[in-house]
Amino acid sequence: MTASPSPTLARHDLIARFTEIVGPTGILTDAADTAPFCTDWRDLYHGRALAVLRPADTEALSRIVRLCAEHDVPMVPQGGNTSMVGGATPDGTGREVVICLSRMNRIRNIDPHDLTMEVEAGVTLKAAQEAAWEAGFMLPLSISSEGSAQIGGVLATNAGGNNTLRYGNARELVLGLEAVMPDGGVFHGLRRLRKDNTGYALRQLLVGSEGTLGFITTAIMQLSPQPREIVAALCAVEDADAALKLLGLLRGRDPALVQAFEFMSGTGMDLVTSLIPATSLPLEERAPAYVLVELATPRPDAELREYAEGVLGDALEAGIITDAVIAESEGQRAGLWKLREEHAEAQRRAGASVKNDVSVPVSHVPELIKRATAACTALIPGIRPAPFGHMGDGNIHFNLVQPEGMAPEAFLARSHDIMDTVAAIVKELDGSFSAEHGVGQLKPYMMPAWRGGAELAAMRHIKAALDPRNLMNPGKVLPPATQDA
C-alpha cells in the first residue's frame, strides 16, 4: 500500500526545508525571480511557483523529491524551458515547485572505445555536442533550440531533430540513465551496454515521459565517428512530390550518406528572407518549395562533393529539381542551415501562428501537405500555410500563419479548429499528432481519440503505479480520466 502523505507544511516551513537542501543560492521564491520559469517559450501558458529549486547533484534532488512526496507538493521539471507544448510550465495555483537542473552541468566522461558520453541533465545539448567534437567524435542529435535545451529535457521529450533519418531520435542514442523516481529513490541505470536483456528497459520508459514518471539526472549517450566531409545543398523543387523523388534518388544511390533532408515551403522561405536579417535566397529565382540536403561521411578520400554534384546533376536532368546550390565553405553551409532554422522565428515575426508538429509515413508527406493546405485555406481564407521540417523521417511542422490584416487574437481563437483540421488528415494518413514536441499540457485532450482503449489505460496504470499521487509534472501528457473515450 502507498503511504499517506504527512500533513502539508506551511509555506515558510517548506521554504526553510528546501533551503536546507539546496542552500540559499539554489532556491528562488520572489515572484520577480521565479517569473521567467513560470512562462513557456511560446508565451501560451503563465503559472505561479511556490519556489524554483536548483539542486546541484542527484542526492539533493532525491531529498527534494522525498520532501515533496512526504508533504504532497507537486513538482515540475524544467531544463532550458524550450517546450513547444507547455510541458515545463507550472499551473496557476502556486502550489507547485519548479525543479531546474541547470546546476547539474558536468560532462563526466567520454569513452573513445565504447563511443559513449556520460553527461548530466543540466548540460545544454550544444555544450555536449562541442565536447564530443573536441574529443574527435559527434553527438548526432541536433535541434533548433540546442543552445538552450538541456540534456534532461531533450531526453524527457525524446527530441528528434535534423539528423533523425540517419541516427534516430534521442531514444535511440541513450544507453543508460540515472533518474530520481517519484518516491525519491534513485534509479541507477548508468550502463554502457549495447546488450542488456535483464527485464524491462526502464530507461526507455523514462525517455519521452516528459517528467511524469521520474526526473532524469544523468545519461550515457552514444557517440558516432566524426565526419571527415560534410556537403550541404539547397535545392529548388516544384512540390513535395518532387522532394520525395529526390529523397528516393539519394537513398537509392547511397543511403548511408544522407544525414539530413529538410523540406521548406516557398511561403516559409519568403518569410525568412524578408523578416530575418542577414538571410537571402542563394538561388536565381524563387521556387514553390525547397529541400536542404546534407550528406556526410567519416570515410577519408570519399570525394563527397563530386558525388553530390553528380547526383544533383542527374536530378536536374530528370526534372526532379529545378535548381541547386552547394555550399562552398563552412560559412555558406551555416548560411543554408540558417534559412531552415529561422523558420519558426520568421513566422513569429509575421504574426500569430498555429503549430502542428505531426508525422506521417514518409510516402504520405506530399498528400499531407496538399490536403492540409487545402483544408486550412478553406477554413480560414487568406491563411498562410508554411509547412517545413524533417521530410526524411516523415515529421512535418505544418504551421499556419495568420492572414495579413487579421487580428492575432482572432486567429489564435481558432487554434483548436486549425489543429483539429490538420489532425483529422494526419489520422487518416496513419500519422501522429505529436512527432517530436511531446504532448505537454497543450495536447492531452487529443490522447483519448488517438491513444485510447488499452494503450491509454496502460499508460494510466504505469503512472498510477509509479506516481500514485500524481505529483510529478501533473497535468501533462495524460488527460483527466473523464475525457477518456
Automatic annotation (TrEMBL):
Q: Which UniProt keywords apply?
A: FAD, Flavoprotein
| Single Gene Ontology BP annotation | respiratory electron transport chain
Classification via InterPro entries: FAD-bd_oxidored_4_C (IPR004113), FAD-bd_PCMH (IPR016166), FAD-bd_PCMH-like_sf (IPR036318), FAD-bd_PCMH_sub1 (IPR016167), FAD-bd_PCMH_sub2 (IPR016169), FAD-linked_Oxase-like_C (IPR016164), FAD-oxidored/transferase_4 (IPR051264), Oxid_FAD_bind_N (IPR006094)
- Which residues belong to any copy of the FAD-binding PCMH-type domain? 45-226
Q: Matching PROSITE patterns, A to Z?
A: FAD_PCMH
What are the GO MF terms of this UniProt record? catalytic activity; FAD binding
Cofactor(s) in the UniProt record: FAD
Similarity comment: Belongs to the FAD-binding oxidoreductase/transferase type 4 family.
PANTHER family reported in the protein's UniProt record: BLL6224 PROTEIN, D-2-HYDROXYGLUTARATE DEHYDROGENASE, MITOCHONDRIAL
Protein name (database record): FAD-binding oxidoreductase
> Which source organism does the UniProt entry give?
Komagataeibacter melaceti
